[in-house]
Write a structure and sequence with these properties.
The structure holds 2 protein chains of 2 kinds. Chain A has 12 helices and 7 strands. By secondary structure, chain A is an alpha+beta fold. In chain B, helix 3 links the parallel strand 3 and strand 4. Classes of the chains: A alpha+beta, B alpha/beta.
């Protein structure tokens, strides 16, 4: 960003010098002064105006979206002061008494001042739009890069090889023992993989569909873990059509299974529930697993943990700071993740 | 031993996979008798000690204790007079573990288990069981391999850690700084690690697994799954009637048990 700005300044300075030369040529063709004199004044005035406006907007405008109106405060005084400064510099360069031109031809001087204001404003507008466009493009490509990165992370997490090969091993075992159940399990796996690939394209879907996909995952894990995994999905019918980011809860349910129940010899229960609280939708994933390491580690682990961080990031992009995710110990044991966001974005 | 039917124990937390392995083994090794199938590492150790199978199949990821930790615990508690079971590790996907197994020539199976691969493992196990009665040095080799595998497991995931110089222990509502130079022993105790100096003890919450890579291995020796001691502070090593080793630290009264895995460190020069 810094490098881009400084190189754009150099380019703009050069363009200004070229423009000044063109003005000097025009003055020579249509006026009565020699080119050398016109060139000196035109350059000294043009570059002074450009430099003053450049410094002014560097100091006063940090953010184009909210502060561009400040240009109205920068350009007129910048152009006027630059004109005066440029006149003095030109006089000095050519060895003339200061402001001699002003004294002898005040009307033409005022005409040149007006011309400087108009050209200064036009050129500034041109340069600023160029920079704004470049900044916009940069921001867009950064956002795209972030989205692509998070899609990739989601895919990597969902298609985790350990999960995939263990599921396939179970499937292979079932084919021999219970072909009908094997077929059901395969259907779940297909639905799970399809949802994972679709969700990586970052869409939203109704809460009912979110719960169906969670059921696919939990059913797959229930076949694998046998009696060690019990689960319940509680979706009130009036929330069935509420749109949610696809597979938003998946990492949280996975955390509950992998970090809550799998390390626990006797296993436990995962409960996913949805409810409306005022204008907010509240989604909860709780388990009766081994719980968070310790009460004061919970915050650190929750913030850094991949699942929670990813959910938080997705909510922030879609709903802004009015959304929240938190991970807390559950009573009497286990952990509870709570997601909250406005029902209308 | 070779005249009787060979026996095995399967430790696998996913019931369908345990059942599938049993079925595949029935095809590949009809005379093998499965004594028990268990779903976690702790039961695997207890049942193996009780049943003394010839072969133990250990799933790597199990609740409570990993397959590797369970194998080490089993080796530690195994009675000297009996031949130690042959170990086969089973994993769905674990790049580091598989590389380590290959490097240590430890037998392993990948899930889903391929019949041809299982057949090769069975041939190897048959050969192993038929020559086993000729001596105990096979056990020493197994111990060395387990030691290597356990030492590699955490290092594979963590970046090169900073060496530890000061222990920060919570005492009341303050923090007590204990230079590592004064520490004689780290001892895992439930959720804590006890840090012993010559005349004091502190509890810290950082697990031993995280402390170990940050300690100088030539200064601090691991002598047990849950015990790391300053080598220079060891006064005596004692052997009891059953052959088990324990050590006494200079200036402290406790006797600390030495695991069989690490007993190779203590031999008269």
């Amino acid at each position: 960003m810094v490098r881009y700005l400084s190189s754009s300044s150099a380019l703009h300075g050069f363009l200004t010098a070229v423009g000044n030369t063109l003005i000097a040529l025009g003055l020579t063709l249509f006026g009565d002064r020699p080119f050398g004199e016109n060139f000196v004044y035109s350059q000294s005035i043009g570059l002074s105006i450009w430099a003053l406006i450049e410094v002014g907007r560097r100091l006063l405008i940090k953010d184009w979206d909210t502060q561009s109106h400040r240009l109205a405060l920068i350009v007129p005084p910048g152009a006027a002061a630059g004109f005066l400064l440029g006149m003095l510099a030109g006089d000095a360069a050519l060895g003339r008494p200061a402001l001699a031109f002003w004294a002898t031809q005040p009307r033409r001087t005022l005409g040149f001042l007006a011309l400087s204001l108009v050209i200064g404003a036009a050129v500034t507008y041109f340069f600023m739009s160029r920079e704004r466009l470049a900044a916009l493009r940069e921001r867009e490509s950064a956002a795209q890069r972030l989205a692509a990165e998070s899609r990739l992370k989601l895919l990597e997490a969902q298609l985790e090889p350990h999960m995939l090969f263990n599921t396939l091993a179970n499937l292979r075992a079932l084919i021999g023992m219970d072909p009908a159940r094997a077929q059901q399990m395969l259907d779940r796996l297909i639905a799970y993989l399809r949802a994972t690939l679709d969700a990586s394209r970052s869409t939203t879907h109704p809460l009912a569909m979110e719960f169906d996909r969670l059921r696919d995952y939990l059913e797959l894990m229930a076949i694998r873990m046998g009696p060690r995994l019990a689960y319940a999905l509680r979706l009130p019918p009036e929330l069935a059509q509420q749109p949610v980011p696809a597979l938003l809860l998946q990492p949280l349910v996975e955390n509950s299974v992998l970090h809550g129940l799998e390390p626990k010899i006797e296993g436990g229960t995962v409960v996913v529930a949805a409810r409306r609280e005022g204008s907010d939708i509240v989604l909860e994933v709780s388990d009766t697993g081994v719980g968070l390491p310790t009460a004061d580690d919970a915050g650190a682990r929750g913030g850094a943990g991949f699942g929670l961080g990813q959910v938080r990031e997705r909510l922030l992009t879609l709903y802004g700071p009015s959304s929240a995710v938190e991970l807390l110990p559950a009573r009497p044991q286990g952990a509870r993740a709570t997601v909250r966001f406005p029902s209308t974005p | 031993m070779t005249e009787t039917m060979p026996t095995a124990l399967i430790a696998e937390d996913e019931p369908l996979l345990a059942e599938a392995l049993r079925a595949e083994l029935a095809r590949a090794w009809p005379e093998l008798r499965i004594l028990a199938m268990v779903g976690d590492g702790v039961s695997a150790v207890a049942r193996s000690l009780a049943l003394e199978p010839d072969v133990v199949f250990f799933d790597i990821r199990m609740p409570g204790q990993s397959g590797l930790e369970a194998a080490a615990a089993l080796a530690d508690a195994w009675p000297d007079a009996r031949p130690f079971p042959a170990l086969v590790f089973v994993t769905a996907y674990d790049q580091y573990a598989v590389e380590a197994f290959d490097a240590q020539a430890v037998d392993y199976l990948l899930k889903p288990v391929e019949p041809a691969r299982l057949q090769r493992t069975v041939e190897r196990l048959r050969g192993l069981l038929s020559t086993r009665d000729q001596g105990q040095h096979g056990f020493e080799g197994t111990l060395a391999r387990l030691r290597q595998l356990l030492a590699q497991a955490p290092a594979a995931t963590a970046a090169v850690p900073e060496p530890l110089t000061v222990i920060q222990a919570g005492v009341g509502d303050g923090i007590r700084l204990v230079p590592v130079d004064q520490v004689l022993c780290f001892e895992a105790a439930d959720k804590y690690v006890r840090v012993l100096t010559e005349n004091r003890g502190f509890l810290i919450r950082t697990p031993l697994k995280e402390l170990l890579p940050r300690l100088d291995a030539s200064v601090f020796w691991q002598v047990h799954r849950g015990t790391v001691v300053r080598a220079a502070a060891i006064e005596r090593v004692l052997r009891d009637d059953t052959g088990k080793l324990s050590l006494v630290l200079r200036g402290r009264g406790e006797r600390l048990p030495v695991s069989r895995l690490y007993a190779h460190r203590f031999k008269p020069m």
